[in-house]
Amino acid sequence: MMKADDLRLDLSSLALHDGDAAELVRAARKLAEPHGFTVGVQVHNTASAMDLERMAGLGVPLSFHTPILSEYVMNLAAADNAPAFAVAEEQMAFMRRYKVDRAVFHGFRMTDLPIPAFGNGRSYDYCMKPANRPELARREGSRFVCDFTADPEFLMRRDRVKANLALLRKRYPAITWCVENDFPAYGSGNLRGSDLAYLEHPVCLDTGHLWASAKMLGFDFYREMQIALDSGHVRMIHFHASRYTFDMDHEDWGDGHLPLDHPTAISLARVAQACRTAGVGHYVLEIPTATLRDVETFLRLYLRAGA
C-alpha cells in the first residue's frame, strides 16, 4: 500500500486552458489533500510555450507528457537511437528548468523513419502517417493495427526498446521516464500488458488506449491490465472514460479521454481497485474537459477501493 506522501493526482494541462485554471487547481487541492494526495499538473505534449509558463505559474508540481515543444517524438524502436536520445536531452533541459522529475512518453513505433510530434497546429493523424505500415493495418486504408505482436520484427524491435529504456534510465537516473501503452494505430508497438511487463521499465498505463487495443487485438482488457500491474512497473495511470463499446465496428473506434461520469463500458471502479491494490500512486486525469466533478468521482472510486 502506498504511503500518503506517495500519492499524486495530476490534472492535465488540456483542462486548464482559461482564467479558471488556478481556481480549479485550488479546489482540487482542497478536495484531494485531506486524503493524502498531492495535486499537480501534467503538461500535455500539445502545450505551447505560453501554456507551459502558465502551468508553471500555478505553484503545483509538474509532470511532463513528452515531447514538450519538440519537432519529433522519441522512437526507441528505431535502428538509430540517436534522434530519440537527442529529443530526450532536449526534454531534460525543460525538466531541469521547471523542476520536473517524472515524465511519460510513447516510445515504440514499428518504423525507422522520423515521426513528427503532433500539436501546435499539427494533427495526430498527419504526424503519425510516416509510421503507418499498410501491411500491419487491420485492413486496407485503416489506421488501426492488426495483431503483429508475435512477428519476428516486432520481437526484435521490442528488445531494442527494452535495451534503449535501460540506457535511458542509466543516462538520466534522477528522472522517472514512464513509457506509455499506445493507442493501437499507425504501427504502434506497446499494446499488451504482457509486452509492457517485458520491458522491465516504469510504465504509464492508459485506460483508454488499453481498451482500444483490447478491441483491435481481441484480448481481455482486465487480464492484460492485471499482467501489467502484477509486474510492479506501473508507476502512473492515465485515468479516463471511453464511449466505445465492443459491439461497435473497429473503424468507428477512437480514444477515450472523457469525463469519469460519462457512460462507459469500462468498469472504472474495477480499474481503481486493481491499481490501488497494486500500489500505484500517481494518477493523471487525462481529460481535456475535466472539472471538479472528475476529481470528486476519482476520489470516490479510489477511496471506495480501499474500504
Characterise this structure.
This protein has 307 residues and is α/β, with parallel strands linked by helices. Helices cover 37% and strands 12% of the residues. The chain has 10 helices and 8 strands. The protein has an 8-stranded parallel β-barrel, surrounded by 4 helices. Strand 5, helix 6 (193-198) and strand 6 (203-206) form a beta-alpha-beta unit. It starts with 7 loop residues before the first strand and ends with a helix.
Question: What would a concise description of this structure say?
Answer:
The protein has 10 helices and 8 strands. The chain has 307 residues and is of the alpha/beta class. Helix 1 (21-32) links the parallel strand 1 and strand 2 (38-43).
Instruction: Trace the largest sheet across and list its strands.
Output: 1-2-3-4-5-6-7-8
**Poorly predicted parts:** 1-5
Quote the beta fraction: 5-15%
Radius of gyration: 18 Å
| Helix-residue proportion | 25-40%
Number of helical stretches of at least 4 residues:
10
- What is the H/E order? EHEHEHEHHEHEHHEHEH
Number of strands: 8
Mean pLDDT: 94
Judged by helices, strands and strand pairing, the structural class is alpha/beta
Largest sheet properties: 8 strands, parallel, barrel
The general outline is globular
Keywords for this structure?
single chain, 307 residues, alpha/beta, eight-stranded parallel beta barrel, globular, disordered N terminus
Task: Provide the fold topology.
Blueprint: E1 8-12, H1 21-32, E2 38-43, H2 49-56, E3 62-65, H3 82-98, E4 102-105, H4 124-128, H5 152-171, E5 176-180, H6 193-198, E6 203-206, H7 207-217, H8 221-230, E7 234-238, H9 268-277, E8 282-285, H10 292-305
Parallel strand pairs: 1-2, 1-8, 2-3, 3-4, 4-5, 5-6, 6-7, 7-8
Helix pairs in contact: 1-10, 9-10
